[in-house]
Amino acid sequence: MTHALADDPRGLARSHPSHGPLLEVRDLSVEYLLEQAVINAVDHVSLDVGAGEFLAIVGESGCGKSTLLFAIARLLYPPAAITGGSVTFQGRNLVGLTETDLSAVRWKDMSVVMQSAMNALNPVLSVAAQFRDAMRAHGVTSKQEIDKRSAEVLRMVGIDPVHLKSYPHQLSGGMRQRAMIAMAMLFTPELIIMDEPTSALDVVAQRSLMAQIKELQRTLGFAVIFVTHDMSLVSHFSDRLMVMYAGQVSEVGRTRQVFDAPKHPYTVGLMDAFPSIRGPRVPLMGIPGSPPDLARPPEGCRFAPRCPKVMPRCETSLPPLYQVEGVGVRCFLYDDGGAR
Amino acid sequence: MRFALRRLGFFALTLWAALSLNFLLPRVMPGNPVESAIASLHVPLTPAEMNAIAAQFGINQHQGLVSEYFTYLGHTLTGNLGVSFVHYPTPVTSYIATGMWWTLGLVGTATILAFILGTAVGAIAAWRRGSRLDSTLPPLLVFTTAIPYFWVGLMLILVFSSVLGWLPSQGGYTLGATPTLSLSFIGDVLQHAILPAFALLITSIGGWVLTMRNTMVGTLTEDYVRMARAKGLPPHRIMMSYAARNAILPNLTGFAMSLGFVVSGAILVEYVFNYPGVGFMLFNAVNGSDYPLMQGLFLLITVVVLLCIVLSDIATAILDPRTRTAA
Amino acid sequence: MAMPISVSSGQPAGLPEPSALPGPGGARGRAARGRLTTAIRRNRKATAGVILLALFTLVALFPGLVPHYDPTEIFFGAKCPSCYSTPALVQSAPSAAHWLGTDLEGHDVFSQVVVGTRAVLVLAVVTGLLTTLIAMVVGVAAAYLGGFWDGVLNVVTDMLLVIPLFPLLIVIVKYLGQSGNLVLILVLTVTGWSYTARQLRSQAQSLRNRDFLLAAKVRGERSFYIIMVEMIPTMTSLLLACFLGNALYAVLAGSGLQFLGLGDPNMVSWGTTLYWADSQGALQSGLYLWEIVPGLCIALLGAAFALLNYAFDEISNPALRPLRAKKARRQAALAAPIGGRLASDDARAS
């Protein structure tokens, strides 16, 4: 698969139906193999991402969403390790591939945007040098082409190419973040994975960056997996929404459906914690308790200790992901003949 | 720019402090250095001669302490460091000059070598975390950093000189040989330098390896290294430009701070091997109560250390763009 | 005398963050110390260091436990008919009566080493304690007071760091004239606190704005209380590491000065023994043990301090801890490692 570095939006090519989802994650499990304990950070998570789709993954801190992301991108470091499942991207299982095989896929077909550009950009190299690194690593050696493409992607995110010579610390926070997104688009990949790229910004910058990401996605046609703890942020921009809790998928479906009619008690609790600015005044509700200790994960439903609708069977057996009106819900409340 | 000026100001302040220490110490310590200096000359002196010596030492009975101080400062800053007592009447400056090159050659080379080798090994050890290199090296090196310089020197002499007789144990060159620029003399010098250099290398390399490794282990967990991996960069590029280049920065600052230890190593090693450098000179000066020479050497060492710090600051500025633009 | 190797001179990431709950800082300090002792037991370097140190301390405190003679006692060799007086026993090889032989004046080497232990240990421990104390006061004060005082203290600290200490020590000791243990301790303390002051200041700074300290302030505690009861107990790990580093510095610098002949030649200490050995030409006379053993002891004691120091670095910064081999291989099977062994290990997995 060669990639022409032309302006031609690949969205045109992608409008053809593909013979399977772009990314298929099945039963992925990730554990932290520590000296004193084994932490079950991601537990049998499955998800699909189609071409050009925007999937948002939300959850509180420690629910495993970042770990899941890094597992998909094969960027885990010891003591974290993938202990089961598969990640099928463009028809190949990424789990078990060597670094050499992976580097062919890296950045050309799948790229990553991290939370803090101040930490994700090498402080001692200029922006241009970091772009150049990525391009040279994938066979682009002509200085002309490198300069041309670098300037091109910067313009796409609204940064003047004169900043190519700058070092990361010389750019403002918002500019750095956008430069990182520009870098991720160097090869117009099919999938861009974003780990809370807006968390380090103020609210106004957040919205404008989100809008820009969405615009670029529409023009260039890449798929996005967007991890965040801020549900309201993605509610306008994502096609599908996945809610994670304690390393498991608790609810997943079309964004509007999940947002407007949350089914899992956890999702309901999350929605209640964000009262609508336009609706009637309601008392602020939180979710009492705290997430379980993943070194000793409970046998049954992981949300049971905090669930207002808990039933006896919830504590002894783990509910599977039921399909209700096209939305997956991991809750026994929906075990009334719904398809699994 | 402001940062550079602040640094220069700090150096000037430190130099001034060293000069003042030099001035104050003999005057606040018990014992009369002039008397012991006169005694060390082993010749009967007239009162006029004794006054002359006192004057050269900077102690003038007719001057107050404060004006003595400023005379002293003036003298030192114009390069007049007095005359050596033991090697009368050689001026301190010319006497020091003879030893300086030996020390720079031996200690300078050994230190730079230790830094480069140590940093490289440390980077590789961190990169290959969990490998055999990484598990065995740290405990071994922790041990070597605790060995006294002089003992390593003595052991090397014992093994390679006394027992095996392969290498000479004393001096910068064979006694009686005339220093010329001939190949045989240079070979002789190198032969004499091997053991002392090795002693310095063994004891100092451990520190570099360990600090580089520890810093690099931290750097390798940084997001930009993960990002480099995500971009599919070749491993050697990640190790060099993303990890090592960031990890080495604290090492460079540490280099400046370790110079104190380098100096102590120089003195001890030169003493053990009778190497004709500045450290050995200092020891002899102390033994012979040659106060002007002692003070001159202390000053010289301070200046050299400050210069090295300046150099490491420059190196940091070159490698770290953040310091260049910092106010 | 090598450069200090401690790198985590700032944020101790390993020990869990003390919560901002109200409560005596003493309890938190005690909890931190409890975690410390378990961590020590688990770390191999720390155990080795503790064992070595305990050994030397035992000998220093109770030299009577080890059979030895008076180090000043002169032993005589065989009578020879033509000699005017009985020559001293000069024995280079170990024997039943003299485990490490004797020196050129007939003194038993082993006894010198055993009796000398106390002087060295006293020097190391007292200097270590005093230097760390001064460094703590200076560092924490600078971090806590901030502003002008911070600037002044910083400049003084940095100046001491830059001025080459060993030549200064030599010059000072020479001017003083005599230099028993007490003098050495004083001189080493006055000059050696700057490096640890820097380390402690940087950690104190990072702690200053942590929640539990702000909570104490809000509760209305006085600054002195906050510093003594809340801040300092959380710095225990670093303080211990500093003490060890300073003790190591004292051993090496002190023995170095004694070796050069600047110590009290009549004191029995490893450094002075080496001085006598060297100045009387032990190597040339073939009395190798006399030359080797005291130095080896210095190296071992230094190594004990250095091992413990390094172990504390690992304890306070978990990222540095050694990867246990089994787990490392298990991980290599499933997740790509950081660097180095890439293709080969992954190939083994599939």
What descriptive keywords fit this protein?
heterotrimer; A: 340 residues; alpha/beta; Rossmann fold; eight-stranded mixed beta sheet; four-stranded antiparallel beta sheet; 11 helices; 12 strands; 29% helix; disordered N terminus; B: 327 residues; mainly alpha; MetI-like fold; 13 helices; globular
Describe the structure.
The complex is a heterotrimer of chains A (340), B (327) and C (350). By secondary structure, chain A is an alpha/beta fold. In chain A, 29% of the residues lie in helices and 22% in strands. Chain A has helices at residues 11-14, 65-72, 99-105, 117-120, 127-137, 143-156, 173-184, 203-220, 231-234, 255-260, 265-273; strands at 23-33, 38-49, 54-58, 80-89, 92-93, 110-113, 191-195, 223-228, 240-245, 248-254, 322-324, 327-329. In chain A, strands 6-7-8-3-9-10-12-11 form an 8-stranded mixed sheet. In chain A, strands 2-1-4-5 form a 4-stranded antiparallel sheet, covered by helices on one side. In chain A, strand 7, helix 8 and strand 8 (223-228) form a beta-alpha-beta unit. In chain A, helix 6 (143-156) crosses helix 7 (173-184). Chain B has 327 residues and is mainly alpha-helical. Chain B has a domain at 94-249 and 267-277: Orthogonal Bundle (MetI-like fold). Helices cover 77% and strands 0% of the residues of chain B. In chain B, helix 8 packs across helix 10. The radius of gyration of chain B is 24 Å and the shape is globular. The model of chain B has no long low-confidence stretch (mean pLDDT 80). Chain C is mainly α. Helix content of chain C is 65%, strand content 0%. Chain C has helices spanning 25-42, 44-61, 109-145, 147-162, 165-176, 181-192, 194-208, 211-219, 223-234, 236-259, 270-279, 288-316, 325-334, 343-349. Chain C starts with 24 loop residues before the first helix and ends with a helix. Classes of the chains: A alpha/beta (340), B mainly alpha (327), C mainly alpha (350). At the B-C interface, helix 1, helix 6, helix 7, helix 8 and helix 10 of B face helix 4, helix 5, helix 10 and helix 12 of C.
